[in-house]
Amino acid sequence: PISCSARASASAHTFIIVLIPTCLTVQGGMIGIFGTSCLQQAWGVTLWNQWDVYDAILDHSWTGPARFGVFLLAFCSALFNFGAILGANLLPFASDVTALFPAYFNLTRGMWFCCLISLALLPWKLLASAQGFLAFLNGYGIFMGPTAAIMIVDYWIVRRGNIHIADAYSSASGARYMYFHGFNPNALIAYTCGMMIPFVGFIGTFGVPVPLAAMRCDELGWYISTVVAASVYVALDRAFPVKNVDRSLNRDQLAREFAAERGGISADRRQTIGEVEDESDEKTVADVMVHNIS
Fold first, then answer.
1. 217 and 198 Cβ atoms separated by less than 8 Å
2. How confident is the model at residue 185 (pLDDT cuts 50, 70, 90)?
3. In contact, 75 and 50? CB cutoff 8 Å
4. Whole-prediction pTM
């Protein structure tokens, strides 16, 4: 992992900030745009779905090499999609439901349950057209934007980078991060405010008549929901500060203390390992001398 091999945390952050947007832009955006443009110039059709591209290749060239190439491409695409679904969708959901309901779920049951309830979303309908797929992605963004915004401002602005790691894993009544029955009221209010503004326009994408202004808000749904949720959360924190934040701590103070503690433990372990190796070397030399004498 990048964070483990980096010499400093700032180096890891800088590398990730530069690498991830660049790779996503090139892989997820530019390659698709270039490929669709090339197909438009070569065959006069606009194809955005990779499976349609494979069909078009076979329609234009039904030869052995072409069929074998399409087979390899389809196999790699299926393998990639399987890995992405398993790692990004099934496993996180299974981990959450297992933690929430350990008496009823484990990782295997959680993943199968996720597969079953995902059928209610009719995923084949989402991929039926480019317009429907883009509408889904836009609607998906207005729900995820407030979540990301609240997490960012809570860590960097409200808590100033200070998290009590051990308390984050406690769900006992009265624990530091249990808030009100496990819910942060400020976060719930901020999330609702951020999501509701573009939500009316999102409903309009399903054919329901809505004002034009609402449709314009939906077009900027992710940006609007993110900014509004972040602003409302910070304002609520100023008006109704949560009780589990120590305002006297400096920025990243707990993180530095935790890193220093881990560094001290690592140094002690290295010293212990060195002492054990020295003792082992001395025993080896003594054994060789005894063997030679005998």
1. yes
2. very high
3. no
4. 0.67
Tell me the C-alpha distance between 27 and 264, whole Å: 42
pLDDT at 288: 43
Mean pLDDT value across the chain: 81
Sign of the four-CA dihedral 275, 280, 281, 287: positive
In the block, which residue shows the tokens 């308390």?
A: 167
Q: What is the rounded end-to-end Cα distance, in angstroms, of the chain?
A: 51
Q: Contact, 43 vs 30, CB < 8 A? A: no
What CA–CA distances, in Å, run from 245 to 157, 159, 199, 259, 280?
A: 11, 6, 32, 20, 49
Structure-token pair, residue 4: 């483990």
Contact, 92 vs 75, CB < 8 A? no
pLDDT-based confidence at residue 285 (cuts at 50, 70, 90) = very low
280 by Cβ neighbours in 10 Å (0-12 / 13-18 / 19+) ranks as: exposed
Collapsing DSSP states into helix, strand and coil, what is residue 180?
strand
State whether the Cα torsion 50-56-60-65 is positive or negative. positive
Residue 160, classed as helix, strand or coil, is coil
Point out which residues pair with 180 in neighbouring strands. 183
> Which value, to the nearest 10 degrees, does the dihedral of the CA atoms of residues 72, 75, 78, 79 take?
-100
C-alpha to C-alpha distance for 35 and 48, rounded to whole angstroms: 8
- 142, 202 contact by CB (below 8 A): yes
| Residues in contact with 229: Cβ distance below 8 Å, sequence separation at least 6, in sequence order | 145, 146, 149, 150, 190, 191, 193, 194, 195
Token pair of 248, please? 């006297």
Return the percentage of the chain with pLDDT > 70, whole number: 83
Closest of 166, 168, 177, 175 to residue 261, by C-alpha: 166
